[in-house]
Design goal:
The complex is a heterotrimer.
Chain A (H helix, E strand, L loop, with lengths): L1 H27 L5 H6 L7 H10 L6 H13 L13 H36 L3 H15 L3 H12 L18 H35 L2 H8 L4 H23 L1 H14 L5 H10 L3 H29 L1 H4 L8
Chain B lengths: L4 E14 L2 E14 L3 E5 L6 H9 L7 E10 L2 E2 L5 H7 L4 E4 L3 H4 L6 H13 L3 H14 L5 H4 L9 H13 L5 E5 L7 H17 L3 E6 L2 H7 L2 E6 L2 E7 H6 L4 H9 L44 H5 L5 E3 L5 E3 L13
Parallel strand pairs in B: 3-8, 3-9, 6-7, 7-8
Antiparallel strand pairs in B: 1-2, 1-4, 4-5, 9-10, 10-12, 11-12
Helix pairs in contact in B: 4-5, 4-7, 5-7, 7-8
Chain C lengths: L1 H30 L34 H37 L1 H15 L3 H12 L5 H26 L2 H8 L4 H37 L11 H8 L8 H28 L8
Helix pairs in contact in C: 1-2, 1-9, 2-3, 2-5, 2-7, 2-9, 3-5, 4-5, 5-7, 7-8, 7-9, 8-9
Classes of the chains: A mainly alpha, B alpha/beta, C mainly alpha.
Chain lengths: 322, 338, 278
C-alpha cells in the first residue's frame, strides 16, 4: 500500500512540471509588458534606471533562463512579488486559502449529502414516469449556472440578515455559526451542479449493483430491505461515486472563483481574477500554479481514497488464499 | 401420503413476460420433500429448475416474472401468497439457499465473518460478539484453517472451493429445516466437487436438514440423492427414487440422459452405434408460447401421434417409492391419470 | 417494453425540441427582433415586463429591450459553443486516436500532455487562456476549445483501446488486413458513439463556460449582448429590477438543459449496455 502511494506521488512530479511550464510561458505571452504598464506614459526613466527596472521585471535575460530561476525560487517558497502591491505573493495566497477551501469543502459536502440520498431514492423508483421525471430534474440541476443561482439567492435572501455574505465576512474560527450561516447559500450555489452529477452516478451505480448475485444472496438470507440496500448495495455502489465526486472538484473550484466574485468574498479565486484584470503577472503565475497544484493533489487524494476503501485493491498482496 | 413432509409443492407455475412473448419457465411442478431427505432435481439449462427454487423462496423478480399458480406448502402455510415480511423471516432461518457461482454470490466489500454472522444476528437475535464467535465456529466446521483470522478476510482472498464452503456455512448457520442448493458444484473443479458434496451431506445429516439439490449432472445425483425429479421445459417429467430412476428409467428423456453418460463399455441405446457417444438429438425447445403438447416429442424416439396433440398428465407408476411419470407411453388414453 | 422506450425517446425528444427552438430563434433574429438591441433609450430604462409596452422581459438600465438582447445573444452563444466543441473534438480526437492506435511512446507523451491540461480546473484554464489571448469575443472559442482537447483525447483513446484488443481486430489482422483498413473499417465506427455523446454534453458545458466568462468580463465584450454579460450588468440594478437578471439566466438554463437532455437521450439510445438497466 505504501508503495502504491509513493508511486502515485512520484507520477505527480512530471505533471506538476508540465503545469509550471505552461503557466510560466503562457503568462509571458500576455499582451502588455508589465514594465510598460508600470511606467505608464508619464514616468520617464534614465537609462540606468531602465537597466535596473529591466532587471527587476525580469526582461534582461532569455526566457528559458528566467523559467529556471523562477522554478528555483518557487521550490524555496518564493513566489515572487505582486506588481500592484509589492507584497510577496505566497503569503497573500495562503491568507486567502481558508475561505476558498471552506467554500469548496462545504460545496462538496452539500453535494454529497444531497446527491447520494437522492440517487438511492431514484434507483428505487419503479414507476417509469417518475423515473423520467427524476432524470429530467437531475439534468436541470446540471443546467443551472452558478452565478445565476448566486444572483437569485441575493434577490431572495437579501432581506434576511446573515444568510448572505455582503462584505461582512467573518472567519470561521472566530464566529463559527455566523460563518456557516452565511456560507451555506454560496456553497449551495456552487455545489448544486455536482449534486446532480452525484445523484445520477449513484442511481446508475445502485441499479447495476442491485442486479448482482450477492444481492440475491443477501435477500436469500432474509435480510431486511434496508440492510440490503444500505449495507450490501450501497457499499459497493458508492465506490465509483467517490471517484466522480473527487474528479469533479475542478468544477467546484471554478465555481468558487465566480461565487467569490459575486459575493465579494476575499478568497483565492477573487485574487486570481483581479490579478488578471490588472495584469499583475507574478501574482497570476503564483495563483494559477497554486490552484492547479491543489487540484492535482485533490485528484491524487481521490485515487488514494478509492484504493483504501476498496478492499480488493487495498489488499493486493498475492498468495493469501486457502 | 401422511409421512413427514416438510415441504409440499403443488402445481407451481411461474411465467415471465418477455419481448418475444410469454415464457412459462415453470409450468405445473409438483413434488414433496421429506424431513432430512436429499431430493435431486435434474435438468438441462433452461429446464426451469433454478426458477423453481427462486419461486419457493419468493425471490423471483416480479415483474417481469409472475407466479401464475400453484401452492408451496410449508408448515401449513402457502408461501406463494405469503406477505414479504413472513417470507423474510423464513429465509436464511428455516429455508436457506446457496447459489451456483460462489465468486459473484458473496459481497466483495464485506468481510466473510460478517457475512456469516449477519444472518445469525438477524434470526437468532445474538449480539455482535456472540454472532461473530458462532461465525468462527461455522468456519471451523466447514474446514477453513485458522478460522478466527480468516473471518476478517474478504471473499477475493479465498479460493473457489473455500468460497462455496463459506456459502454453505452461511446457509446452515441458523440450522434451517430446508437447504436449497442450486448447482453448488457446477462452477468448481471436479476434485473440489466431491469435497463440497460430502460437506453438504455431512452437515445436513447432522442437523436433519432436508436438501433440494439442483444439478445437471446425473453423477452427482447418483451419489447424493434419495429421490430424484427430472425436469424438462418447465415440467417434471419423471419422479422416482434414485434406484428406480437409474435401473428402470421410464421417460424417454430420462433414458436419453442416462444413455448420454459416457461409459467404457456400453450397450447400444435405441439402435445407436456402440462406438459413438450418444446424445439426444435436437435441442431443448424455446419456452416462448409453448403449444399444448408434450414438450419432448420433437426429440423423442418413441413419439406418438397423441404426443403432438396434448400434454401428458402426471401418472402414478409402481416403484420402490411412490413414482410418477409424464408420458403418453405410460398413461394411454383410457388409463386413469393418478 | 413500452415504458422504457418511451422514456428514452421523450428525453432525447424534449432535448431536440428545445435546441430546435433556440435554433429557430437564431434564424428569426436575423430578420426580426422586437426592438433594437443596442439602441439606448434612457426614457424607458428599467421598465418592468409588460405585454402592453411590448417589452416582454422588461428593459435594462439603458432602456434596451431585454428580450431582443436575449434573442441576439443566442447566436453568439450557439456559435461559440459549436465552434469550441468542434475545435476541441477535432484536435482531441485526433490526439486520442493517435495515442490509442499507435501506443508506446506516442501514447505515453500525448497522454502526459493531456494530463497536464487536465490539471487545471476547466473554468480556471479558460480564464487563464483568455488572459493570455486578450479579452476578445472570439478568443473564447479558443479558450473553451483548449479545455475540451484533453477530454476528447481521453475518451477517444479509451474507446480505441477497448476496440483494439477485441478479438475481431486480431482476426482481421490475421486475415492480412493492413493498419489503415483496420483503423477505418473497425475502429472508427466504434468510437463514434462515445464521441457523439460527449459532443452533446460538451455543447451544454460550453454554454455555461462562455456565460461564466462573459459574466466575469472575460468573454463576450459589451455592447455585444451575451447572456453572461447581461447578468453581470444586471448585478447593480437587479435588486430593484429583478427581471434584468432572471430572464437572461433562464435563457441559459433552458438551452443548457436542452443540450443535456439531448446528450442524455442520445446516450440511452446509442449505448446498448444501458438498455438492460430497467
Amino acid at each position: 500500500m505504501g508503495r502504491y502511494i509513493a508511486k502515485r506521488l512520484l507520477s505527480l512530479v512530471p505533471v506538476l512540471f508540465g503545469v509550471s511550464i505552461i503557466v510560466f510561458f503562457l503568462v509571458r505571452l500576455i499582451p502588455g509588458s508589465a514594465l510598460q504598464m508600470y511606467l505608464g506614459t508619464q514616468v520617464e526613466a534614465t537609462p540606468q534606471q531602465m537597466v535596473e527596472l529591466k532587471r527587476i521585471f525580469g526582461e534582461d535575460k532569455p526566457v528559458p533562463v528566467l523559467y529556471v530561476e523562477w522554478l528555483g525560487r518557487l521550490l524555496r517558497g518564493d513566489f515572487g512579488y505582486s506588481l500592484r502591491t509589492g507584497r510577496p505573493v505566497l503569503p497573500d495566497i495562503l491568507a486567502r486559502l481558508p475561505i476558498s477551501l471552506e467554500l469548496t469543502a462545504l460545496a462538496l459536502v452539500l453535494a454529497l449529502a444531497i446527491g447520494i440520498p437522492q440517487g438511492i431514492l431514484a434507483s428505487l423508483q419503479r414507476n417509469p414516469i417518475g423515473d423520467v421525471a427524476n432524470r429530467m430534474l437531475g439534468l436541470l440541476g446540471l443546467s443551472l449556472p452558478q452565478f445565476w443561482l448566486a444572483a437569485l439567492m441575493v434577490l431572495l435572501f437579501s432581506g434576511f440578515r446573515g444568510w448572505i455574505p455582503m462584505g461582512n465576512y467573518v472567519r470561521f474560527f472566530a464566529h463559527p455559526l455566523e460563518n456557516l450561516r452565511m456560507m451555506i447559500l454560496p456553497s449551495l450555489a456552487i455545489g448544486v451542479g455536482l449534486a446532480a452529477v452525484i445523484m445520477r452516478y449513484t442511481r446508475n451505480s445502485m441499479l447495476e449493483v442491485m442486479q448482482m448475485d450477492y444481492i440475491r444472496t443477501a435477500k436469500a438470507k432474509g435480510l431486511k430491505r434496508r440492510s440490503v440496500i444500505l449495507r450490501h448495495a450501497l457499499k459497493n455502489a458508492i465506490l465509483p461515486v467517490i471517484t466522480v465526486a473527487g474528479f469533479n472538484t475542478g468544477y467546484l473550484i471554478g465555481g468558487a472563483i465566480v461565487i467569490e466574485e459575486v459575493f465579494a468574498l476575499p478568497g483565492m479565486g477573487r485574487l486570481a481574477l483581479y490579478a488578471i484584470y490588472q495584469r499583475d503577472y507574478p501574482l497570476i503565475q503564483g495563483i494559477v500554479l497554486f490552484i492547479a497544484a491543489i487540484f492535482v493533489l485533490v485528484n491524487l487524494a481521490t485515487d488514494l481514497i478509492y484504493a483504501v476503501v476498496d478492499p480488493r485493491i487495498r489488499l493486493d498482496e498475492p498468495g493469501r488464499r486457502a | 401420503m401422511t409421512e413427514d413432509y416438510v415441504l409440499k409443492v403443488e402445481g407451481l407455475a411461474t411465467h415471465f413476460s418477455s419481448a418475444g412473448g410469454l415464457v412459462k419457465a415453470v409450468d405445473g411442478v409438483s413434488f414433496e420433500l421429506r424431513r432430512g431427505e436429499i431430493l435431486g432435481i435434474v435438468g438441462e439449462s433452461g429446464s426451469g429448475k433454478s426458477v423453481t427454487n427462486l419461486s419457493i423462496l419468493g425471490l423471483v423478480q416480479c415483474p417481469p416474472g409472475k407466479i401464475a399458480g400453484g401452492r408451496v406448502l410449508y408448515r401449513e402455510r402457502d408461501l406463494l401468497g405469503a406477505p414479504e415480511e413472513e417470507l423474510r423471516a423464513l429465509r436464511g432461518k428455516d429455508i436457506s439457499m446457496i447459489f451456483q457461482d460462489p465468486l459473484t454470490s458473496l459481497n466483495p466489500v464485506i468481510k466473510i465473518g460478517r457475512q456469516i454472522s449477519e444472518a445469525i444476528r438477524l434470526h437468532h437475535g445474538l449480539g455482535r460478539r456472540e454472532a461473530a464467535a458462532k461465525a468462527v465456529e461455522m468456519l471451523a466446521l466447514i474446514g477453513i484453517p485458522d478460522p478466527e483470522r480468516r473471518a476478517g478476510d474478504y471473499p477475493h482472498q479465498f479460493s473457489g472451493g473455500m468460497r462455496q464452503r463459506v456459502m454453505i456455512a452461511m446457509a446452515l448457520s441458523c440450522d434451517p429445516e430446508i437447504l436449497i442448493a442450486d448447482e453448488p458444484t457446477t462452477a468448481l473443479d471436479v476434485t473440489i466437487q466431491a469435497q463440497i458434496l460430502d460437506l453438504i451431506r455431512n452437515l445436513s445429516s447432522r442437523s436433519k436438514t432436508a436438501v433440494i439439490l439442483v444439478t445437471h449432472d446425473l453423477g452427482v445425483v447418483a451419489g447424493m440423492c434419495e429421490e430424484v425429479c427430472v425436469m424438462y421445459a418447465g415440467r417434471i417429467v419423471e419422479r422416482a427414487s434414485v434406484d428406480d430412476l437409474f435401473y428402470d428409467p421410464l421417460h424417454p428423456y430420462t433414458r436419453g440422459l442416462l444413455a448420454s453418460i459416457p461409459r467404457a463399455e456400453r450397450a447400444p441405446e435405441e439402435g445407436g452405434n456402440p462406438d459413438r457417444l450418444y446424445s439426444i438429438p435436437g435441442s431443448p425447445p424455446s419456452l416462448v408460447d409453448m403449444p399444448d403438447a408434450c414438450p419432448f416429442h420433437p426429440r423423442c424416439p418413441r413419439a406418438m401421434d397423441i404426443c403432438r396433440r396434448a400434454q401428458p398428465p402426471e401418472t402414478s407408476v409402481a416403484g420402490l417409492t411412490p413414482r410418477t411419470v409424464r408420458c403418453w407411453l405410460h398413461s394411454g388414453e383410457g388409463v386413469d391419470a393418478g | 417494453m413500452k415504458a422504457p422506450a418511451f422514456a428514452r425517446n421523450s428525453i432525447a425528444l424534449s432535448g431536440a425540441i428545445i435546441v430546435g427552438l433556440y435554433l429557430a430563434i437564431v434564424v428569426v433574429s436575423f430578420f426580426w427582433l422586437p426592438f433594437d438591441p443596442v439602441k439606448m433609450d434612457s426614457d424607458h430604462s428599467l421598465e418592468a415586463p409588460s405585454i402592453a409596452s411590448g417589452h416582454l422581459c422588461g428593459t435594462d438600465e439603458y432602456g434596451r429591450d431585454i428580450l431582443s438582447r436575449i434573442m441576439k445573444g443566442t447566436f453568439v452563444s450557439l456559435v461559440i459553443s459549436l465552434s469550441a466543441t468542434a475545435m476541441g473534438a477535432v484536435i482531441g480526437v485526433t490526439m486520442g486516436v493517435w495515442a490509442g492506435f499507435l501506443g508506446g511512446r506516442w501514447d505515453h507523451w500525448l497522454m502526459r500532455a493531456a494530463d497536464v491540461l487536465f490539471s487545471f480546473p476547466s473554468l480556471l484554464l479558460a480564464i487563464f487562456v483568455m488572459a493570455v489571448l486578450g479579452e476578445k469575443t472570439w478568443n473564447v472559442v479558443v479558450a473553451i476549445g483548449i479545455v475540451y482537447i484533453p477530454q476528447f483525447a481521453r475518451i477517444s483513446r479509451g474507446a480505441i483501446l477497448v476496440v483494439k484488443t477485441n478479438e475481431f481486430v486480431r482476426a482481421a489482422r490475421s486475415n492480412g488486413a493492413g493498419s489503415g483498413f483496420i483503423l477505418f473499417r473497425h475502429l472508427l465506427p466504434n468510437i463514434l458513439v462515445p464521441i457523439i455523446v460527449q459532443v452533446s454534453l460538451s455543447l451544454s458545458v460550453a454554454i455555461l463556460l462562455e456565460s461564466s466568462l462573459s459574466f466575469l468580463g472575460l468573454g463576450v465584450q459589451p455592447p455585444e449582448p451575451s447572456w453572461g454579460n447581461m447578468l453581470s450588468a444586471a448585478r447593480n440594478v437587479m435588486v430593484i429590477a429583478p427581471w434584468t437578471a432572471v430572464y437572461p439566466g433562464l435563457a441559459i438554463v433552458f438551452l443548457v438543459l436542452g443540450f443535456n437532455l439531448l446528450g442524455d437521450g442520445l446516450r440511452d439510445l446509442l449505448d446498448p449496455r444501458l438498455k438492460n438497466i430497467r
